[in-house]
């Protein structure tokens, strides 16, 4: 019973839920100029978790055959048989329906529409349409991962405004710089499964340069927030310091490639996680300390 429960939790891809928490809570605090209504925050997080969990379950159902070919995903529940494909698909649909009803009832029509759009983008646009057709899959498919920013903002403010757009773009440009180093680390897996991730289709030098480019775009977008919203020096200093660390990590991967050394791409992958967490922590703390 416990093993089955853990398997269903794994179907929701809990690490995607971490991104939901890291971005949604700070954005809601920033949009409210302080602590938002805690009931609203809880409703957004639960609805977002249902939607993201549904997306993860649909993804594992669709990719169960290719997952079996990859060392990194060979122990997923639909591959090992702990959960049957039919049960996994049913679970995905139940979470999807639950997320729509929950968001419509307790949050509002615009956040519900955005949350549903994010789900459809991840499942249909990224998983089905793009992932096996283009090496730029995570660039455009990553739009789905940016949606929680818009959901959180619209839940508080009732619409989409420029600060939400800027933070959306931060996550948009961050996503390839985050995932491409991972694709270098697992390039043999992706090649075996026939998935054209950039790290599997291009030389490491090519990937490293593009990681730097997207990291630069991410940091530039983060520094655009003071142009469209009131922020303190705390946010600016944090954005500069965290951005410098992220860029340095990406640059070091390129230097290691030039020297013929081990690229150590997972260092960039982990640095990107730290960067996003620190930046959005500053987004959430700034209004609490300065307004």
Automatic annotation (TrEMBL):
| Compartment(s) | Cell membrane
Q: Which HAMAP family match?
A: CyoE_CtaB
Q: What is its main location?
A: membrane
Q: In which pathway does it act?
A: Porphyrin-containing compound metabolism; heme O biosynthesis; heme O from protoheme: step 1/1
EC annotation from Swiss-Prot or TrEMBL: 2.5.1.141
Annotated function: Converts heme B (protoheme IX) to heme O by substitution of the vinyl group on carbon 2 of heme B porphyrin ring with a hydroxyethyl farnesyl side group.
> NCBIfam families from the entry?
cyoE_ctaB, PRK04375.1-2
- Its recorded name reads Protoheme IX farnesyltransferase
Entry-linked Pfam families: UbiA
Identify the keywords attached in UniProt to this record, alphabetized: Cell membrane, Heme biosynthesis, Membrane, Transferase, Transmembrane, Transmembrane helix
Keyword check for Transmembrane, yes or no: yes
Membrane disposition: Multi-pass membrane protein
């Amino acid at each position: 019973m416990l093993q089955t429960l853990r398997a269903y939790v794994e179907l929701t891809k809990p690490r995607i839920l971490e991104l939901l928490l890291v971005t949604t809570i700070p954005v809601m605090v920033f949009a409210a100029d302080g602590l938002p209504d805690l009931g609203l925050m809880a409703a957004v997080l639960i609805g977002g978790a249902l939607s993201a969990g549904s997306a993860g379950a649909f993804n594992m159902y669709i990719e169960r055959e290719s997952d079996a070919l990859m060392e990194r995903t060979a122990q997923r529940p639909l591959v090992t048989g702990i959960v049957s494909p039919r049960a996994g698909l049913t679970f995905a649909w139940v979470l999807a329906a639950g997320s729509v009803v929950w968001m419509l009832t307790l949050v509002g029509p615009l956040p519900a529409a955005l949350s549903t759009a994010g789900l459809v983008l991840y499942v249909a646009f990224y998983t089905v349409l793009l992932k096996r057709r283009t090496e730029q899959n995570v660039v455009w498919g990553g739009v789905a991962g940016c949606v929680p920013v818009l959901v959180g903002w619209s839940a508080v403010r009732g619409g989409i405004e420029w600060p939400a757009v800027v933070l959306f773009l931060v996550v948009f440009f961050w996503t390839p710089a985050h995932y491409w180093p991972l694709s270098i680390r697992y390039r043999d897996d992706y090649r075996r499964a026939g998935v054209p991730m950039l790290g599997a289709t291009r030389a490491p030098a090519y990937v490293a340069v593009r990681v730097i480019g997207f990291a630069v775009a991410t940091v530039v977008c983060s520094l655009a927030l003071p142009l469209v919203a009131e922020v303190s020096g705390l946010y600016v200093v944090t954005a500069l310091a965290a951005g410098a660390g992220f860029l340095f990590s990406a640059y070091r991967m390129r230097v290691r490639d030039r020297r013929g050394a081990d690229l150590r791409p997972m260092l960039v992958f982990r640095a990107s996680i730290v960067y996003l967490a620190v930046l959005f922590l500053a987004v959430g703390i700034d209004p609490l300390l300065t307004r």
